[in-house]
Amino acid sequence: GIVVWLAHPFVFMLPFVAYFFIKKHLGKNYALAGFPFFWVTFEWLHSLGEVSFPWLTIGTTQIYNHYWTQFIDITGVWGGSFLIVLTNVVIYKMIQNNNIYSEKLNFVNFFLKKNIRFSIALLLIIILPVLYGYFKIQEFDHTKLLKENKTLNVGVIQPNIDPWQKWASDGFKQIELHQALQDSLVKAHPDLDLCIWSETAIPSVSISLNQGHNYTFLQDWLDLHKVSLLTGFSEYHVYEDSEKAPVTARAWVLDSALRWEPFNAALLLNPKPNEQLNPQLYRKMRLTPFAERLPYAEKFTFAQKWFQWGIGISSWGIGNEQHNLKFQNNGKNADIGSVICIESIYPRFVSRFTQKGAGLLVVITNDGWYDFTIGPEQHYQIAAVRAIENRRYIARAANTGVSGFITPTGISLLKAKHYEPTAIATTLPILTGESLYVQYGDWLPLVSFFISILLLTAALIYRMQRK
Questions:
Q1: Which of 225, 230, 255, 261 could covalently link to 317 via disulfide, CB atoms 3.0 to 4.6 Å apart?
Q2: In this structure, are residues 423 and 384 in contact, taking their beta carbons and an 8 Å threshold?
Q3: Does the CA dihedral 451-456-460-466 come out positive or negative?
Q4: Tens digits of per-residue pLDDT, 20-37?
C-alpha cells in the first residue's frame, strides 16, 4: 500500500521528463508534438513486467463517453489516451496563440481567426470517433447478435463473503453457500448452461480437493442439474521431481523432500456426458505485485517470506500457459477466456484469449478488498473497455461485486446489487471474428515508442554537439 500510495505517482512524471528534455534541446513545438507519443509509450511500458500496474490508463476514463470510445477496437485503450493528450496539446496551442489572460476573450478570434487549423483538428478528434462509434453500435446491437449467433444461458454467483475472513473460515461452507445460490438460480432459469463463481470461490479446503483434484461431490451435483461450472480455485501443485521445481517452490507439508506451489486458478467442470474434458485448469499469469507475489521472486528468494502474509495463501506461483477453457453442455460448445482479477487491466493479455478463439470472456475476481470505495466500479468499467477492444461479451463474477454482464459495446446488460449475496442470469451470444486490435495488438504503443526514441535520440545528439 505504501509503495502504491507514495512511490507509484512519481512514475507518472516520466513522460514529463521526456517532454522537458526535448523542449530544452529541440524546442517547444517538437516537445508538444511528441508529448502524446511520450504518454502512450509510458502507459504501454507501465503495463509490462511483473511490477506493472496499469490501473490509471487515461483512455479508460472515456468508457462513459459511449459513442466516442468505440474506436478502441482498432487502437486498444491506448488510442483513447493518445487523443485525450493530443486534445490537451491542441487546446494549449490555441491558448498560446491567444493571450487570454491579458486580453478579453473573443470566441470568434479564438476559434476562427487565430486558431482555424487547431479548431478543425479539435472537431475531427471529437467527431470522427463518434461517427465510427455510431456505425459500430449498430453493428453490435444486442438484439441483432442474439438472432445471428449461437448463445449460452449464463449465470453469475455473487456470495458476498468477507475477504478478510474467507481464508480462516470453513471452505466447505463457502462452497455450500455458492451451491445454494446456484440452486435458486437454476430453479428460476431451468435452461441454464453455465454458472460462474468468483476468484478463489473454492479456497483452501483439503489436500484431497486442492491437490488431489477430487471434485466428485461437485461433479455429481452438476450432473444432476446439467449445468457447467467455471469457478476460481486455489490449486496446490506438488512437483514430482523436486530438482525441476522452481526456486520459489516450498517444502511439501506431507513430504519435505518434495516441493510445491499454490496457484490462483480457474477451474471448468462440464457435466455428463461431456465430463471427459474435466478438469480444465487455467493458472493466473498476471499477479498483483507484492499483494499476491513478490515481483521477480525467483531472483529474490531471500525476500519471498516477507510477502507470505496472513490473508489468503499468498506468494502464488505464476501460470506459464495462456489458454481457453472448453465449455461443452446441452449440445452447445464454446471456448471461454477465463480472466482472473487484475489480468483484466492488461489490454494485450486479454486480447490473446480472443486471438486463441475465445467466443466469450469471463472475469472472476474478489474486489472485496476495496470495501465501500469506488474501486470495484472502476475495475468493472475497465472490463467494459476490454469488451470493446475484443468485441466480446463479458460475464463478470465478483465475490462482493460488481458482478454483471457487459456487451461488446461496453454497455451493461445486467448488474447485481453490490455487497449482497445474489445470483443473476442472462443469455449471451458467442461471437466470432477478430477486431483490428485483437489482430494487430499494441501497434500504436510500438509506433509511439519508435517516435519517442527518435526524438530523444535527436535531442541527445544535439545536446552532445552543443557540448
A1: 261
A2: no
A3: positive
A4: 999 999 999 999 999 999
